[in-house]
């Protein structure tokens, strides 16, 4: 196994003073845009968003980020200081949920297809099994087992630079998924458990697609 890259000591930034010396002062608008609750536009953004990434940390500081997606409006605004995210069936690793129990600090990034801006929400999360709350988030008659309730500390809109640099929504920059292994092949080859027979791998891929249909909610 190869050794991990090590940052050269002479080029490692060790404090915030060194960091800030590399950049111009923060623009006044970048400071002012940070709010402590959801305004009407932030609420509208969340209601349009079908996808978010949620960042969490374990008690010992191990970081994690997880994608969450559903039809637009799946994250509900309970009030200007509180949002709730349904927990849908996944791989049952429960990394995000376990981290929230250990350390409630969370960061969420809301994304809307076609929008180059993103909405960032930082706050403190709790896990709830309140039947009334969960019933509001049922899909196809299936109620989530729990919900992530986030008390908002900070909310602000990110500018479009990252998405414009990446050309994320530009059809001319779309990549062919077939140029890389399927999820199943990726995992099995990385773990040394991939079958030698192409037909066997195809059946595993088909089985995963069937599982998606059965276990989406």
TrEMBL record:
InterPro entries: Pyridox_Oxase_FMN-dep (IPR024029), Pyridox_Oxase_N (IPR011576), Split_barrel_FMN-bd (IPR012349). Residues 42-159 form the Pyridoxamine 5'-phosphate oxidase N-terminal domain. Pfam families: PNPOx_N. SUPFAM superfamilies: FMN-binding split barrel. It comes from the Bacteria. This is Pyridoxamine 5'-phosphate oxidase. It comes from Rhizobium wuzhouense.
């Amino acid at each position: 196994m190869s050794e991990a890259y090590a940052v050269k000591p002479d080029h490692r930034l060790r404090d915030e003073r060194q960091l800030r010396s590399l950049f111009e002062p923060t623009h006044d608008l970048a400071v002012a845009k940070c709010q402590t609750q959801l305004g009407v536009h932030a609420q509208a953004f969340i209601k349009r968003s079908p996808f978010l990434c949620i960042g969490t940390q374990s008690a010992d500081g191990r970081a994690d980020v997880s994608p969450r997606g559903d039809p637009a409006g799946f994250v509900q605004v309970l009030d200007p200081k509180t949002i709730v995210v349904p927990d849908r069936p996944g791989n049952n690793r429960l990394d995000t949920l376990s981290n929230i129990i250990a350390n409630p600090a969370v960061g969420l990034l809301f994304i809307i297809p076609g929008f180059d801006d993103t909405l960032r929400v930082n706050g403190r999360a709790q896990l709830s099994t309140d039947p009334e709350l969960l019933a509001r988030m049922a899909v196809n008659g299936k109620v989530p087992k729990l919900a992530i309730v986030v008390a908002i500390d900070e909310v602000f809109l990110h500018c479009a630079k990252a998405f414009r640099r990446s050309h994320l929504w530009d059809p001319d920059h779309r990549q062919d998924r077939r140029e890389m292994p399927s999820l199943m092949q990726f995992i099995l080859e990385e773990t040394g458990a991939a079958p030698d027979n192409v037909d066997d791998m195809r059946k595993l891929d088909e089985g995963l697609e069937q599982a998606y249909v059965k276990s989406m909610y």
